[in-house]
Amino acid sequence: PNIGYGSGKKTKYRSPTGFYKFLVRSPADLEMLLMHNEKYAIEIAHSIGAKKRKEIIARADQLRLQVTNRFARMRAEENE
User: Fold this and answer.
1) Burial (0-12, 13-18, 19+ Cβ within 10 Å), 44
2) pLDDT single digits (tens) 11-38
3) How many CB atoms lie within 10 A of CB 50?
4) Cβ-count burial of 56 within 10 angstroms (0-12 exposed, 13-18 middle, 19+ buried)?
5) Sign of the torsion formed by the C-alpha atoms of 64, 38, 45 and 30
6) What are phi and psi of 45, to 5 degrees?
7) At a CB cut-off of 8 Å and minimum separation 6, what does 37 contact?
8) % of residues, the chain, pLDDT over 90
9) Element holding 44 (H helix, E strand)
10) Which backbone phi and psi does 15 adopt, to 5 degrees?
């Protein structure tokens, strides 16, 4: 049995930007990452609508969290 092509233990499960992914389904999920904004980047779940996405992105900006799919489902509807 030879050693495979796996990642190193220190960098396993990290994205190329150096963050761990954290799946968010509601704005309340962001409160868990209050002190870990330099370690985790959030990814908004695919089933979340545009209205809730705006709330999550606004709260993530306040907490200085990086959002991996920030522009998903955000069309040019901001002409209100």
Assistant:
1) buried
2) 999 999 999 999 999 999 999 999 999 9
3) 11
4) buried
5) negative
6) -60, 150
7) 63, 64, 65, 66
8) 75
9) strand 40-44
10) -80, 170
